[in-house]
Amino acid sequence: MSAKDNYISPLIRLNPQDNVAVARERLDPRELSEVEGIPLRARIPRGHKLALRQIPMGEAVIKYGQIIGFATADIGAGDHVHTQNLGVGEFMRDYAFCTDIRPLPPVDRQASFMGYRRADGRVGTRNYIAVIASVNCSATVSRAVAAHFTPEVMARFPGVDGVISLTHGGGCAFNTKTEGYDYLTRTIAGYASHPNVGGVLMIGLGCETNQISALLEREGLAEGERLQTLTIQTVGGTRRTVAAGIVAVEAMMPGVGAARREEVPASGLSLALECGGSDGYSGISANPGLGHAADLLIRHGGTVILAETPEIYGAEHLLTRRAARPEVAEKLLERIEWWRDYTARNRAEMDNNPSHGNKQGGLTTILEKSLGAVAKGGSGTLEAVYEYAEKVTARGLVFMDTPGYDPVAVTGQVAGGANLIAFTTGRGSVSGFKPAPSLKLATNSEMFRHMSEDMDLDCGTVVTGEETIEALGERIFQAMLDAASGKETVSEALGYGDNEFVPWQVGAIM
């Protein structure tokens, strides 16, 4: 094999139409006068963009074969393209409803994992008892109940993965006829009926707006052996409620612990897709690799939930073209318009992204970030669009309207029924999300090595040329099956995931 056969270009050009490429590694004009025949006019950090040709001021900058913004100054071939010369601008998008549907082929052999079959037909990947606060005023008591069940105590109750507290900062001082109330009650109910939760203790203060009895009636839930409720004012104070809560949870243990894992088809998986701390490699390695794994899961009959509406802005036309029906595409665009109004009345803008860390990693505009983020969803048909924390019933690829803020987004997806999370990160996001296991996928090998204790998979192998997107997708899919079968993710091994229950607070708090 010749040296030429081993050659890997220092630039990654993602589409023949692109007028920028991504630096595979740092490029410095003091060390390199030109790259791929292009004079190197500036230092290009790893993961950042280099202009492949002259781009006059006002001209579109193209990456992924799509517009990621417009030159705010004349850009020369070999220049660094970033915040100093690239900005967002308005342009027409071709939504072309339902014109790019490519059905995924079925698989020859059904994959499986070891999961918990639940009475409603769904499948759990974990078996927790959850202590859920109806209001912030009962958060301390809820945490105290769960804290009693240390690993030493849990050793007495085999078969139960743990007792988790799900507490939040809301539950009172709002109007029960608003979106915010809908979101909160749907979220709590989604966790209370989640397939990864075998038993629930719901604790309230007693005088809050979010009354437990009203929530249960509204969401079709009822008290029973696996769902108990307490209110601090009725029981007689915090210490008595903690004691009563411990007794109630202990009484649930035998029934919850009796559940056993059994072989179930991969169609029982409902996968939440999330990216946080993205970088210039996110749309090149981890996100498309996860997209390939998502396609594999859909081919096996599973469900894949794409979310973060502000972070598909500028790429929504790629989803409307893959919508199963015109009304699915219309609903997605309705949610985009809701966000335009929501940001305007809160004196914000849709292009307030990327974050500081995203920009350091090479992302410049929300359009660029969104195009990379959408790659997580693979190439399947968009079957449905859900509002925040709605129960997901469709199979295949679906979209859930959530903020881009990671804990709020994932909370909504888990409330919708996601029993597994795949979280891509280029800067090093470290959250866990009990009761659903979360796989951390590193977009670049340098960060994977630097934060190896917090990352599950190195996807930087695509950047270095060691692995194809397809091979990475196969590896991610197997890691999903392993995690669903009970293999601890790194965040679980570290005991993380108790503080990321963050329901979306929308509307006036009075």
In spatial order, strands of the major sheet run 19-20-18-17-21-22-23
| Low confidence ranges | none
Find the structural class using helix and strand composition.
alpha/beta
Strand proportion = 15-25%
Largest sheet: 7 strands, parallel
- Find the count of extended strands (DSSP E, 2+ residues): 23
Using only C-alpha atoms, the radius of gyration works out to 24 Å
Query: What is the distance, rounded to the nearest whole angstrom, between the alpha carbons of the first and last residues?
Result: 72 Å
Summed up, the helix count is 15
Indicate the percent of residues in helices: 25-40%
- Average residue-wise pLDDT: 96
Account of the protein in words:
By secondary structure, the protein is of the alpha/beta class. It contains 15 helices and 23 strands. A seven-stranded parallel beta sheet has the order 19-20-18-17-21-22-23, sandwiched between helices. It has a four-stranded antiparallel beta sheet with strand order 1-2-5-8, with no helix packed on it. Strands 13-12-14-15 form a four-stranded parallel beta sheet, sandwiched between helices. A hairpin with a 2-residue loop joins strand 6 and strand 7 (66-71). Helix 1 (139-148) packs across helix 6, helix 3 (179-192) packs across helix 12 and helix 7 packs across helix 14 (469-484). The protein is globular. The mean pLDDT is 96.
